[in-house]
């Protein structure tokens, strides 16, 4: 099977963004809701305000775009973004561990075959290059600012920086906004072979889509992600704030601890019993980081072995079998049954305990993935990390609304059916249209398996960005 590890690499974005982005807008800060679900293009989505007897309230009217992907089948979730006038559409991987948003450029010297045609600046009447000056790295002609990102599996993306109108579909409450993005000239590795067009950076940094929209005053400084469950897919992304459910579990997220979205994890309990570990184990290097662009989860070695042993003891009546790839010693169990909704009757509950004793419970689908060759068998989706960082990828937050409240330096977790979330937030029961008649792109829903690149910088140094990146080969 594919595997992810952590390696420290350097990715350079030498660019001073002071004064680059115009701020100030008369628009009110409204949340923008972008569903991430696996469904038929003709499916009807009916509005519903309650689910499982609980109410999820919206602070503003919502908007959405349809997507087609799945965490384990594809290794990522994507959202639709339209760039330019008239709009050119792209399927971008949702990545909280990256800052730059980028798409393949029309003149890319080395770009793979992706889901949509490459971006053509000449066809956009609103496109402007970010002109070269002393504050950025310049292209060979010394005319345009450039960016470069390198990832641990030796994939990379590099190109020029441009500015254009970004829009999010006809149903968006957010009007199109000008923003800076990357236009790729070269991509290698997984970036070259993946089906998705590029990356939508939601991390911290002035090139992040979030930071640019917040700086303009068009959304509040918060966003949420909700990934669908095992074998279902689906979910939603909310840009802007929503009123948190009363039983949402929050933990502090220190923006000075690392440039990433971290949480204060202190203990892990398996079947109600804490793992015998020093709580400082989850605070090594970058601490405990949430990264939507990573498929699985990675614990420091001692924590992983304690977790593996605790789960194995609780399911000792199951037969332990080999995984798909003989190169890796996956921890897999057969005989658990094919019905994933019944896994909690076989596998133990796992709890994450935060600094002030807040407890958030994980279902088996949050730490298991199905064995694709043996029916009724499942493997641990949590692995040992060669680094002291604790990295929690998308598998840990399936069927969980995760709110990144950047304004208040906290992150919240709320168990829910993410595939049904849009039904509770959406007032419309009709499929969303494309932004305009100009959109005639390929809308194939088949995306080849791959993993989103995701940057985890060590420190922010003026003129550079150091990356710590999990990856799949």
TrEMBL record:
One GO biological process term: proteolysis
The keyword Phosphoprotein is assigned to this record: no
Keyword list, A-Z: Aspartyl protease, Glycoprotein, Hydrolase, Protease, Signal
Entries under PROSITE patterns matching the protein: ASP_PROTEASE, PEPTIDASE_A1
Domain Peptidase A1 residues, every copy: 77-414
Signal sequence extent: 1-24
Gene3D superfamilies in the record: Acid Proteases (2.40.70.10)
Pfam families: TAXi_C, TAXi_N
Entry's transmembrane regions: none
GO MF annotation terms: aspartic-type endopeptidase activity
Active-site residue list: 95, 291
Superkingdom of origin: Eukaryota
UniProt keyword Cell membrane, yes or no: no
Family as reported in the entry's similarity comment: Belongs to the peptidase A1 family.
PANTHER family registered for this protein in UniProt: ASPARTYL PROTEASES, PEPTIDASE A1 DOMAIN-CONTAINING PROTEIN
Protein name: Peptidase A1 domain-containing protein
């Amino acid at each position: 099977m594919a595997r992810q590890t952590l390696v420290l690499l350097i990715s350079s974005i030498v660019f001073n963004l002071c004064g680059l982005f115009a701020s100030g807008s008369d628009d009110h800060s409204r949340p923008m809701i972008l569903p991430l679900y696996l469904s038929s293009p003709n499916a009807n989505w009916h509005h519903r305000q309650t689910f499982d007897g609980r109410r999820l309230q919206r602070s503003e009217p919502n908007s959405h775009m349809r997507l087609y992907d799945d965490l384990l089948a594809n290794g990522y979730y994507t959202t639709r973004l339209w760039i330019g006038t008239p709009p050119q559409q792209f399927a971008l991987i949702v990545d909280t561990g990256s800052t730059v948003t980028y798409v393949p450029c029309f003149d890319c010297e080395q770009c793979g075959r992706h889901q949509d045609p490459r971006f053509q600046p000449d066809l956009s009447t609103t496109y402007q290059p970010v002109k070269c000056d002393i504050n950025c790295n310049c292209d060979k002609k010394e005319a345009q600012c450039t960016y470069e990102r390198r990832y641990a599996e030796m994939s990379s993306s590099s190109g020029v920086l441009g500015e254009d109108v970004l829009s999010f579909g006809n149903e968006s409450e957010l009007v199109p906004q000008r923003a800076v993005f990357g236009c790729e000239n070269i991509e290698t590795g997984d970036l070259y072979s993946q089906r998705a067009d590029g990356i939508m950076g939601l991390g911290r940094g002035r090139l992040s889509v979030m930071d640019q929209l917040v700086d303009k005053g068009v959304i509040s400084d918060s966003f949420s992600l909700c990934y669908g469950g095992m074998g279902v897919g689906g979910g939603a992304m909310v840009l802007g704030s929503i009123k948190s459910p009363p039983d949402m579990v929050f933990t502090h997220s220190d923006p000075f601890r690392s440039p990433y979205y971290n949480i204060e994890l202190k203990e892990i309990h398996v079947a109600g019993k804490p793992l015998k570990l020093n709580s400082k184990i989850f605070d090594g290097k970058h601490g405990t980081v949430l990264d939507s662009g990573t498929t699985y989860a990675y614990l420091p070695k001692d924590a992983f072995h304690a977790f593996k042993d605790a789960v194995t003891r609780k399911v000792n009546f199951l037969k332990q079998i080999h995984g798909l790839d003989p190169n890796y010693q996956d921890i897999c169990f057969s005989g658990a049954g094919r019905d994933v909704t019944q896994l909690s009757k076989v596998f133990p509950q796992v709890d994450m305990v935060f600094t002030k004793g807040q407890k958030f419970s994980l279902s088996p689908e949050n730490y298991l993935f199905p064995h694709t060759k043996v029916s009724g068998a499942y493997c641990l989706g949590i692995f040992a990390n060669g680094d002291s960082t604790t990295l929690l990828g998308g598998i840990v937050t399936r069927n969980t609304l995760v709110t990144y409240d950047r304004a208040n330096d906290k992150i919240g977790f709320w168990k829910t059916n993410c595939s049904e979330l849009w039904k509770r937030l959406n007032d419309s029961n009709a499929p969303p249209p494309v932004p305009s008649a100009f959109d005639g792109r390929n809308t194939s829903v088949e995306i080849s398996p791959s993993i989103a690149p995701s940057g985890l910088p060590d420190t922010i140094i003026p003129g550079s960005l150091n990356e710590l990146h999990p990856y799949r080969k």
